[in-house]
Design a protein that fits this description.
With 384 residues, the chain is mainly beta. It contains five helices and 20 strands. The protein is elongated. It binds a DNA duplex (14 and 14 nucleotides) through helix 5.
Length: 384
DNA sequence: ATCGACACAAAGGA
DNA sequence: GTCCTTTGTGTCGA
């Protein structure tokens, strides 16, 4: 043990209560906090949790961790603030659909010296949960072809129950049916909004590919009277914790996951990036696994670069923020040049329209080892 | 200074 | 106990 510092000690109790430290609106402690109703008191808790989640759905005062290795400093998360929707969803009956994106960084950040701190080389886990807020009276008719694998309390909801209102340059609007929804995570400079690259590793880390975080397709699911967004996944991609660790990238056919010989030894669930076409397969060809939770979890995310001027006095400290984005995918043919909305091209005639995003406040990202900063003037990893 | 690559070590699971 | 996987981080060179 001459080259490595000892494992970090468990966080002192005061660090495990970000609510008391976070200056911005209340933050999540755990993904399960969504289900405890902490984030959205107007919404009822979900009862159809995956056992791995529900068994740990203890009161937050117990500070239960849903991830292993309790010695890691986990589960401090800055709050994500909602911004104004960029596009508007509605149902065919013109009922407006409000969207709530709940996101948390459940691993990889520390709260130190009154700011959020990350290390470029350490993994982040970012969880996203989406709730489509529709009055019970306006709930769509469930699909008759709902998967028999679904728990009785859940039924998939046809994406075509949702439309998006596109603003056109000529001032008019156009209503387009949603083919499917997707979420992703990006980062940007807190001051100027310029993109900051994130990378996602496989469990092989340096031996595997590094990619941008995938755009994870999700499916609206009627769950106990609410429409939640369930990650579309396949059994091999479910991790040991019951959380989804891997998603169908935009450029991977949905059917590939079912036939891939993705090893499931241990908790390793390496994403398979080898195949490469987009798919417009409707999710009906891809039954929702009954173990899926209503949480998308992006594992092994890293900042590609550090913030500038870390630890230098009399210089402007650069800060990054993490952004969770909800997209609605529509047919490119329906989305002609007059569309004002923020759109990104997918493959095979799909265009991703941003519905809404939520973002953290500033996060300082250190590029070197913790020991480097601990040795600085002030010691103890002082940031100044 | 930053960042990628290589390496070692610690923790946990099989 | 061993062996393997995962991941934090020390170090070095570009």
């Amino acid at each position: 043990m001459t080259t490595s510092a000892p494992r970090p000690e468990p966080l002192p109790a005061q660090y495990a209560i970000p609510l008391a430290l976070e200056p911005s609106p209340p933050a999540l402690l755990l993904p399960t906090a969504y289900h405890a109703g902490l984030l959205s008191p107007a919404l009822s808790p979900v009862s159809s949790l995956h056992p791995a989640l529900s068994s740990q759905n203890a009161p937050l005062s117990g500070l239960q961790f849903i991830f292993p290795r309790a010695s890691r400093p986990l589960l401090c998360t800055p709050s994500f603030s909602g911004l104004a929707p960029i596009s508007h969803l509605q149902q065919p009956n013109l009922h407006a659909v409000r969207v709530q994106i709940n996101a948390a960084i459940s691993r990889g950040l520390r709260f130190e010296s009154a700011r959020w701190l990350a290390y470029r080389r350490n993994y982040l886990s970012i969880t996203i949960n989406v709730v489509f807020d529709i009055p019970l009276s306006a709930l769509p008719t469930p699909q008759p072809s709902s998967s028999p694998l679904l728990p009785r309390s859940r039924q998939s909801v046809d994406n075509h129950n949702f439309s998006i209102v596109l603003d056109l340059r000529n001032g008019s609007q156009r209503v387009v049916k949603v083919k499917f929804f997707a979420v992703t995570v990006v980062a940007e400079d807190e001051v100027n909004g310029r993109p900051v690259e994130l990378v996602q590793h496989t469990s092989k880390r340096d031996q595997g590919p590094r990619r941008k975080p995938v755009v994870a397709r999700i499916r609206p699911t009627l769950s106990d009277g609410r429409i939640m967004a369930t990650p579309i996944s396949h059994p091999a991609s479910l991790g040991a914790h019951g959380l989804v660790e891997d998603f169908i990238p935009m450029d991977r056919p949905a059917s590939a996951g079912l036939s891939s010989n993705n090893p499931t030894r241990g908790s390793s669930t390496s994403p398979d990036y080898s195949t490469g076409h987009d798919s417009e397969h409707e999710q009906t060809s891809f039954d929702l696994n009954h173990e899926s939770a209503e949480i998308v979890c992006f594992e092994r995310i890293q900042f590609k670069r550090a913030t500038a001027n870390n630890g230098r006095k009399n210089t402007a400290q650069q800060m990054f923020r993490v952004v969770a984005i909800l997209y609605a995918a529509v047919d490119e043919t329906e989305c002609f040049d007059g569309v004002v909305s923020n759109a990104e091209h997918g493959m095979n005639g799909i265009r991703y329209l941003e519905i809404q995003r939520v973002a953290t406040g500033g996060v300082m990202v250190r590029g070197r080892s913790p020991g480097h900063y601990a040795d600085r003037v002030g010691g103890g990893g002082m940031i100044q």
